[in-house]
């Protein structure tokens, strides 16, 4: 069975032979950009509207907070005063929305290669993209691989909210790219990067963390559940030259931001770095 919309359902089947099916409704947007197929459709489910790229699940209105709160708040809380943030990918705007909950932030740069994703999400996923017009947000529609070259000492936090290591996201999984990201960090800077499903994408995770460990002296992983992603279980890499996970947590911001979140809180944060045995062995 191929992925995508067929016979009234959206299907996504993993290489492991299992996946999800969602009862689909009206297609709100469907077009091919220079890079990929971009589609937004209604569902007859608790998930609301769904964004897919090349027929692969990217985000849903119903469970997007599981991803966006984790990629943003876990690294942000470990920085004492994050003022400048770079989001690579993330054209749906959910990561930017969460970053801007931190009152220390003065500027967030969104570098997204595909302007069609941004435009479609602004029009059809307003609860996710709602902060893309914030004056603190600078949107760059360009290739992050080129953008990050030569950037030094610019960002407190870099969040790599990329697609899978294929198509337009493939070049974001190289040692050269991660090295350039490291150079772009200010002292005490932190990188968080989505790092696939520990259950479904074991080979991809192993390769990614082998690369990251060549570049960053501190490289850990944290995990959480995402109902509509492959396997329902997801990982993010936490990387820095000097900041160890759980070595510091901003109590004031944590308390304030927890009030705005559906999943994030201090206890949940601390538990994210506890890993199952099979993932420890893999890494």
Overall description:
The protein has a 7-stranded mixed β-sheet with strand order 9-8-7-10-11-13-12. It has a 6-stranded antiparallel β-sheet with strand order 1-2-3-4-5-6. The chain is of the alpha/beta class and 283 residues long. The model has no long low-confidence stretch (mean pLDDT 94). Helix content is 29%, strand content 31%. The longest helix has 14 residues, at 64-77.
Question: Layout of SSEs?
Answer:
Layout lengths: L3 E3 L2 E5 L5 E14 L4 E7 L6 E4 L2 E5 L3 H14 L6 E6 L4 H6 L7 E6 L2 H10 L1 H4 L7 E5 L2 H4 L7 E7 L13 H9 L1 E10 L7 H14 L2 E8 L7 E8 L10 H8 L7 H6 L5 H6 L1
The portion of residues assigned to helices is 25-40%
Mind summarizing the main beta sheet? 7 strands, mixed
Beta-strand content estimate? 25-35%
Q: Rounded to an integer, what's the Rg over CA atoms?
A: 18 Å
Q: Low-confidence segments, ≥5 residues, pLDDT <50?
A: none
Q: Order of helices and strands, N to C?
A: EEEEEEHEHEHHEHEHEHEEHHH
Distance between the termini: 32 Å
Q: Tell me the structural class.
A: alpha/beta
Strands ordered across the widest β-sheet = 9-8-7-10-11-13-12
Could you tell me the mean pLDDT? Answer: 94
Count of helical stretches? 10
- The count of strands amounts to 13
Q: What sort of overall outline do the alpha carbons produce when their principal axes are compared?
A: globular
